[in-house]
Structure to design on (415 residues):
């Protein structure tokens, strides 16, 4: 066993995730390596949500009765936990949303429609997830704005050599993924943000793959907006957050209209609530926010630096073992200090979907496809890849199981 693995006490962590302790069929234990799509949930999160429904379910910010006050306190406490987790200046800078996708759309509809016009420029990267491309394509079509893309090098890094040109002219927004969900690259967001700000642009960071796996500090990154989903970080589906610099959130119009986002309504018009209430129209996902708060407690209790170090060690081991398998090509940086635990690969003469299906027979859950990053796959002339993605509860033995399953899949194809 590797020393970093012992540092984390993975066996104790696995005991917190009952779902991991199962066989997908008799004698075939589950090896869950699809964490970039969605992580599993510890008991602490499941119980926090259960507790809310069993003991104090009520609507928030509306009632003056005991249950509503308790639910409101728990909901707002969850917001404060999320704010502290990413070092936001205040809990008012955290807007609860359903997921990272909704957060990007909120920024696009609210901030983008006011601040981006005909001829303006939006700079994105070739490694963005569709969630940080399609909303901007919609806006560019509506407004007549221009989209520019920072290209990706063969080894999976952003090619910043033409950044000065890309940032020239009326650039209003730079959108960049912190950690790629395909090649795993951790991008130099602080450097890009500094250059974007010098060019007069705002910066939106897609942190859907970084916040769950490493310490993220919105102030150190100097992000104007940062988005992530709860379900990839041990929290429930239907939870997520938009971080927005308070001064920006204050000036932005609402995304949706309805209850709770107003201070006063007359038949003639309405006055908006303070942030973040202005962006949370209607009854929110209360149990999900409380679950996300419990996930933050769980991850912070273990320590993001330890989690990151563990994943780095597992990824280094996976890269080494995958390299032994004839015909396997792994995409992304070879240097594990520059990447996270997302490992996309191809195997000669085998379709990525066939690989995923065959390793599933041996209990190994991986994802195959374009992972909602088609432009990045086009960059490598690939229709799809197979992807193993690791988290705090994965072991070195599970990497061995993946490699054994790949050898078995190869032998099926050789028949
Ligand atoms: N990536 C994957 O398997 P949502 O679906 O809103 O929770 O997250 C969207 C998203 C945005 N940015 C990045 C970098 C992402 O990886 C994802 C989700 C999953 O890679 C599902 S496609």
């Amino acid at each position: 066993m590797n020393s970093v693995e012992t540092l984390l006490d993975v066996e104790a962590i696995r005991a917190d995730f009952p779902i991991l302790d199962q066989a997908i069929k008799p004698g075939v234990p589950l090896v869950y390596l699809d964490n970039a799509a969605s992580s599993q949930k510890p008991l602490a999160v499941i119980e926090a949500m259960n507790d809310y429904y069993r003991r104090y379910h009520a609507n928030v910010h509306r009632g003056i009765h005991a249950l509503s006050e308790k639910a409101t306190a728990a909901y707002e406490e969850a917001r404060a936990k999320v704010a502290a987790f990413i070092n936001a200046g205040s809990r008012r800078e955290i807007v609860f949303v359903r997921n990272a996708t909704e957060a990007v759309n909120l920024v696009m509809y609210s901030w983008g429609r006011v601040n981006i016009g005909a001829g303006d420029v939006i700079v994105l990267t070739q490694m963005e997830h569709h969630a940080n491309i399609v909303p901007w394509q919609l806006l560019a079509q509506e407004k007549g704005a221009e989209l520019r893309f920072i290209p990706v090098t063969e080894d999976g890094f952003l090619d910043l050599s033409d950044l000065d040109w890309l940032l020239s002219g009326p650039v209003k927004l730079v959108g960049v993924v912190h950690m790629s969900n395909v090649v795993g690259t951790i991008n130099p967001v602080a450097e890009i943000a500094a250059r974007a700000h010098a060019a007069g642009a705002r910066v939106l960071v897609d942190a859907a793959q970084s916040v769950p796996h490493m310490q993220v500090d919105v102030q150190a990154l100097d992000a104007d907006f940062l988005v992530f989903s709860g379900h990839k970080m041990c929290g429930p589906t239907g939870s997520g957050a938009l971080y927005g610099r308070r001064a920006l959130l204050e000036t932005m119009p609402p995304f949706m209209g309805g209850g709770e986002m107003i201070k006063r309504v007359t038949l003639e018009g309405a006055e908006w609530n303070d942030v973040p209430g202005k962006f949370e129209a209607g009854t929110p996902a209360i149990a999900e926010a409380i679950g996300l708060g419990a996930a933050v407690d769980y991850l912070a209790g273990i320590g993001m630096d330890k989690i990151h170090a563990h994943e780095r060690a597992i990824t280094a081991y996976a890269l080494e073992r995958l390299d032994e398998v004839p015909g396997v090509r792994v995409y992304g940086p070879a240097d594990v200090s520059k990447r996270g635990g997302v490992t996309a690969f191809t195997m000669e003469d085998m379709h990525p979907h066939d690989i995923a299906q065959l390793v599933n027979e041996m209990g190994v859950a991986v994802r195959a496809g374009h992972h909602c990053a088609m432009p990045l796959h086009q960059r490598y002339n690939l229709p799809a890849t197979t992807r193993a993605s690791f988290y705090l509860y994965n072991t070195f033995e599970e990497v061995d199981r993946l490699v054994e399953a790949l050898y078995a899949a190869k032998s099926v194809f050789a028949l």
Notes: The CA atoms of residues 19 and 40 lie 7 Å apart. Residues 1-5 have pLDDT under 50 and may be disordered. The chain has 15 helices and 17 strands.
